[in-house]
Write a structure and sequence with these properties.
The structure holds two protein chains of two kinds. Chain A is built from 17 helices and 23 strands. Chain A is of the alpha+beta class. The termini of chain A are far apart. The chains are: A alpha+beta, B mainly alpha. Chain B: It is found in: Cell membrane.
Chain lengths: ~525, ~300
């Protein structure tokens, strides 16, 4: 008589437990579908996306989605961003590298079945040129885009622009269906209002079409039935979810909720057991130290000897420890994987550092190292990095005091060039080494270090030569010379190129990091 | 029967009178009070001696990163290879003396303001108390954040911010006590003897408000430690690489999977705050004569009741 009465609450509790367990499945995005043929793919990433209109996008997640929805004239293969390959078009350039002629591939269609013509290309690019406020607008500044015939377009610039193909590979310059977009408010004169339409559906030729977009929770893509390219997607449906905490991404991946986790840090991927694979590659970002060369800011210590002392005092292997898997030492201001990057980075040389410190006139002052403390780059937190730099510099007798601040606060001081000693990062806007020329004296980043053009005319000339080169090999040599000169006598100390870790369950394969669009979703296929 | 019980009670009362003089007060002997006192004394000892005996320099990055708690490193290592145990103990030397200092400062400021307001009354009272209300109108942590942020992030400025937000409660309590005491006959008598207001306050009134103030201050040490750690957690207090409990927890977020980074500083804060609260509670019981008598009476009643039952 007694036993059943005692069992009843137990049974009730068990039932409640099961119910709870059932509820916890609520955050998984239809994992059942994955079992069916075609199935769906779930990707976790911390969202940085504002729109799915390629003309307005310029964020990592935005680029990844645009890459899936739209195609560009030029493409890259896998994670190699040094060699542009034909996308929608193949191209030829004139000898001055000022005019490029693009010939569209035959038989390519948009998702509504209509053919891609030169008119679509011209409209897509001119639409962005017209929208002065649009983020990718600067990519096409000063270019003249002309239709030659139905399958040929020329793009001309006034100065040599060898990096044009690399620029055109940016997903923001994806080709949209001119007729459809024009019907929905698209224009080339700047009064464009098609963004609202393009946030609801896509009008491109990419392997996927947009199903739904929710900027805070998830983007759902479905397979483009009219796709005519060579990257036929293996999944019918792709769900890209906004998971801001990397620890949550890890739990989702381990629990089988998700197949691809985009933002795991080095320590997290090292802890992944069997059944998962990780693609760790250096990203395009460079974390560096800057030492201000303006006497107004740095006083007596405004000289490059001090930066040499810092450069040779650091133990780069110990710094790399903090960055985790995939990260590499920055060999110069141009990161590995880009044209003209140096092969070897600096190795620690305490004697040389001490000599340089002597030459710099350092006299026991305390340098304030300013850095953003809430903005990890590629999973690398700046505070531990700064702490380690501080302790390493103490070994040559250089006193450093740490002055962390939120990114938004510290940015003004950095951009305004008022930081004496700063820890910052720089990433390319598009995949070309020309993006690293701003480190030169008198240019954007150089000026942030108080380094004006007169400070080192030699390096300024090297940068100018690289910018106006018309031959690829010549330009590579110019970039190398520039990078070497910067390491020899620049005010910057390149530290780390953080890694990007794309972790996947073993059920999928092909998730490869690309510095322009993170991951080409169409390349992801079921394993085996 | 009844006569027996009567004599028994009388001897009990006599014995009780001796006992309170010879032994610790009963409230002191409450388990929580003892526990609080032991933990608090231990932490204070750590705070003043830690730098002599910790196994590693708190900022030395000489160990492997993210090592789990074990034999070599008692509480594991953090993301840059520093020994958590050494940092935790050194953290006490930062937090506890500063917390004590700030509580003393807040108590002095608050008591002076409250005593002046309560003693002189009228417009002085109005002005001082409205200023007190003004400060109390803002949520403590938010106001402290505003002050610390506007002074610039550093441990010293965090202490100033904490003083700014914590003096009003002392002012209020002092004022109400002084208001009550001001009308007492002995105070009035003192004034009629020609004592200046200053002398009247210090000689006649101050000894009578010291007790409640001490209780309030002891209870407030816990809150002060929480506030300082909170400000450091938000990046407005201790700056890296200083070992401080709040900033240790804050940096533990970066390595979410390494539980030992955040748990131990958290436990340190928990134990020290709880200890000072217990201590404050016990102190209140001791210094409040009515509570002591009530406790004694109750204890006597229970003992005699059990005695009668036996």
């Amino acid at each position: 008589m007694n036993a059943p009465r005692r069992l009843a609450p137990l049974a009730l509790g068990t039932a409640a437990l099961f119910l709870l367990a059932g509820c916890s499945g609520g955050n998984s995005a239809n994992t059942d579908d994955a079992e069916q043929s075609g199935g769906s793919l779930v990707i976790d990433t911390a969202f940085s996306i504002e729109t799915t209109d390629p003309g307005h996008t310029y964020d990592p997640t935005g680029n990844m989605v645009a890459k899936a929805l739209y195609e560009t004239l030029v493409d890259f293969e896998g994670s190699d961003v040094t060699t542009p390959v034909p996308g929608l078009a193949s191209w030829e350039q004139n000898d001055d590298a000022t005019e490029f002629t693009f010939t569209l591939e035959d038989g390519r269609t948009f998702s509504d079945g209509s053919e891609i013509t030169a008119d679509d290309v011209v409209f897509s690019l001119q639409r962005i040129q017209g929208m002065v406020e649009a983020k990718p607008n600067f990519l096409l500044a000063g270019l003249t885009i002309t239709k030659v015939d139905d399958s040929t377009v020329t793009i001309a610039s006034e100065t040599p622009l060898l990096q044009l193909p690399a620029i055109l590979a940016n997903p923001a310059l994806g080709i949209v269906n001119a007729d459809v977009v024009q019907e929905n408010g698209g224009t080339t004169d700047g009064s464009d209002s098609a963004q609202g339409f393009l946030d609801g559906e896509s009008a491109g030729s990419g392997p996927f079409v947009l199903d739904t977009l929710d900027l805070t929770s998830q983007v759902v893509l479905t397979k483009n039935p009219e796709y005519t390219g060579d990257e036929e997607p293996a999944y019918d449906r792709v769900v890209i979810r906004n998971v801001t905490e990397s620890a949550t991404q890890l739990i989702n991946l381990q629990g089988g909720d998700t197949m691809v986790a985009m933002d795991l840090n080095g320590d997290q991927v090292e802890g992944l057991e069997d059944g998962f694979s990780v693609d760790s590659v250096p990203s395009g970002q460079t974390i560096f130290l800057l030492l201000n060369q303006s006497p107004d800011v740095a006083g007596d210590l405004a000289n490059v000897d001090l930066s040499e002392a810092v450069r040779y005092a650091l133990d780069y292997d110990a710094l790399l420890e903090l960055a985790g898997a995939g990260a590499t030492q920055a060999t110069g201001v141009i990161p590995t994987g880009f044209e003209g990057a140096l092969e070897e980075g600096v190795t620690q040389d305490i004697d040389r550092a001490k000599e340089a410190l002597e030459a710099s006139g350092y006299d026991g002052q305390t340098l304030r190292l300013q850095f953003p403390n809430d903005y990890p780059v590629g999973g690398v937190e700046f505070t531990p990095l700064a702490e380690r730099i501080q302790s390493q510099l103490a070994e040559i007798g250089l006193n450093v005091e740490l002055a962390p601040a939120p990114f938004a606060t510290e940015l003004d001081a950095y951009v305004g060039g008022t930081e004496g000693f700063g820890l910052w990062f720089w990433g390319p806007d598009y995949a070309d080494s020309a993006n690293f020329l701003p480190f030169a004296p008198g240019l954007k980043v150089g000026l942030r270090a108080g380094w004006d053009a007169a400070a080192n005319t030699e390096i300024a000339d090297l940068a100018a030569a690289a910018a106006s080169a018309t031959d690829v090999d010549e330009r590579t040599a110019d970039f190398t010379a520039f990078a070497e000169a910067m390491q020899e006598s620049g005010p910057f100390v390149p530290l780390i190129v953080p890694g990007r870790n794309i972790a996947t369950a073993d059920t999928v394969t092909g998730a490869v990091y690309n510095s322009v669009w993170d991951v080409d979703i169409a390349e992801i296929t079921p394993a085996g | 029967m009844s006569a027996e019980r009567g004599t028994g009670n009388r001897t009990d009362v006599l014995a009780a009178g001796w006992r309170t003089r010879l032994r610790w007060p009963r409230a002191w002997r409450s388990p929580l009070g003892i526990l609080g006192a032991v933990i608090a004394v231990a932490w204070v000892l750590v705070a003043f001696t830690a730098s002599w005996w910790v196994p590693f320099e708190p900022n030395a990055q000489v160990l492997p990163r993210l090592q789990e708690p074990g034999v070599d490193t008692l509480l594991g290592t953090d993301g840059t290879g520093r020994d958590i145990f050494s940092r935790l103990m050194t953290g006490a030397t930062v937090t506890i003396p500063l917390a004590l200092m700030l509580v003393v400062a807040a108590m002095v400021i608050g008591t002076v303001v409250g005593a002046v307001a309560g003693y002189f009354g009228r417009w002085i009272d109005e002005t001082l108390m409205r200023i007190t209300d003004l400060v109390m109108a803002f949520p403590t942590v938010i106001l402290a954040m505003v002050v610390a942020a506007s002074l610039g992030p550093s441990l010293f400025n965090a202490v100033i911010a904490a003083i700014v937000v914590s003096w009003p409660q002392y002012a209020r309590v002092t004022r109400s006590l002084v208001l009550g005491l001001r009308g007492q006959n002995y105070v009035i008598a003192g004034r009629l003897l020609g004592r200046s207001p200053l002398k009247s306050l210090t000689v006649d009134i101050l000894p009578n408000i010291v007790g409640p103030m001490l209780v309030l201050a002891t209870l407030d040490i816990g809150a002060a430690i929480l506030l300082l750690s909170g400000l450091s957690f938000l990046g407005l207090g201790a700056q890296p690489p200083t070992a401080e409990w709040g900033s240790m927890i804050s940096s533990a977020i970066q390595n979410f999977d390494a539980w030992w980074l955040g748990v131990f500083p958290g436990l340190a804060i928990l134990t020290v705050v709880a200890a000072f609260n217990f201590l404050g509670d016990a102190l209140r019981d001791i210094l409040d004569p009515t509570a002591e008598v009530a406790r004694e009476n109750q204890a006597d009643r229970t003992s005699s009741a059990t005695g009668a039952a036996a």
